[in-house]
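Re: that chain you flagged

S.,

Sorry for the slow reply, it's been a week of failed gels. I finally had a moment to sit down with the sequence you sent. For the record, here it is as I used it:
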Amino acid sequence: MAVCGREVLVALKALHARWGVVFAHLPDLGCGRSWEQVHKVQPREPLACDECRHPLHAKVSQCGVKFFAHDPGAPDCEIAREGESEAHHLLKLELLNAARDAGAHAELEVRAPDGSWRADVLASAPDGSWRIALEAQLSPITNDEIRARTERMREHQVAACWFSDRPKPRWLGEVPSVRVGQPGAEEAGPLSVIEGLSRFAGGYWRAVAPPPSLAQFLRWVFEHRIVVHAVRDGTWFPIEARRLAGVWTAPVYAAAELAYLEEAERQRQEQLAKAAARQRRLEARRAQVRELNEASRGRQRFKAMKAEDAVRGTAAATAARGKVLDQPWVRRAIAYLEEVHSITAVVGWSVDDARWAGGVPLLDEEGMPIAVLNPDRGLTRDQAHFLLAGLLLLFDDDCTMKHFRRWAYGAPKRPKDQRMEAVQPATEKSGGRSEAASRVPSRRSARAEPERLPACGCEHPQLFLRIDGRDHPAEPTDSFSPASALFQAQCRACGGSYERPWRRIITRTPAPTPPEATQSALDR
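Prediction finished late last night. Pasting the structure tokens below so you have them in one place:
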């Protein structure tokens, strides 16, 4: 379609004083007259604007378009105010002719009874069962404004469809609308609908190909074979196409989109159910492995306690324990457990036992293994493999801990839940001693100047011991406990020291008995 692009005040319809309504685009002007009878004749024919009754005169544009133009001094009527271009009038003529070719009754420039809107082309059924306004919109307009104009027509039971031949109208798809143009490279021939009419296939909305002519599109609209459909989330447009909020399509394609989305949702729910089932199986397996591991580790802790009781107080155990008892790195570990975990720990007697993997066993007051200090990564095998997996492993620094984590056991056999902590992280190093260890006095210096207290001789002593300034209850017993190697019990009644066997009263769960559970996956 040729476009001049020049802005002029034009109209295609005029009122003749004797002939009535005349149309510039019709060969007989709609009243049995010819164009030559109104164009460049003297005296001029009495033509007036249908909108403002201002005089009009017949003209022909450079593109060959016949129209009526306002005489100078035109009032502020709607046609004169809009200043429509020839391209706009040419598109209106195309819409008018296409609507008539599609079998509808069509008129140009039809106003609402109350003047609230004016249709470029008003197409209606021969029996008057429907009316639809065909609007040519070439100038920029906001989405809100075009929606408001559409709604004003709908209030009068008039549907609307908007047309544009511009490359990318912003409002396309926001209201019932299509983009028209030439389907090929040629610039002549009837207009076709090239965007806004779509079909749904394979999850995508694609333009109908080949693009139908404007008359064919309007015939489908008038026969209700296509409808305006709001595109739903979850469907797509090809990469080269714009995503539109709404398209013209056949009802079968709207139903296909719904079926596609329902199937996609069904598959998604099925995948979620399968994932949940896999997660439940995984959690059940993990729970089983944890149960088996706890049983295996419980057996190993029980065996370690038995080995500890067997060597307690023997000459070899006393010598081995004495070598590590006063080492500063051992004192740091004991202080770390007290400060961080509130656990009072002592060095075990079975230092040379292979189950500790060359590390120093740390026990609580009841003789229960609670941690191992600096185990050798090359000795974590056999019983040590199962025992250390269930205990807290302490290391002098981060570097030693990282090396153990990387090289001990071997990757396939490494326990996933093993706890490791550095007594002296790199950020806390200061002169070779941690802050916690600096607050713990040397055992040798503590023994060099013991506190002198009278011995308790009460028949029913009320015992307690003091740890880091806090009092903990104790009671007499038949044999010395591990806590008696580190602390001195006192009697509240007489204030003297208690020299006979005693133990600390704690609420800790008693030592476990050998569990009867089956061998765990870790044992295997």
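What I noticed first: The first strand starts at residue 10 and ends at 11.

Talk soon,
D.
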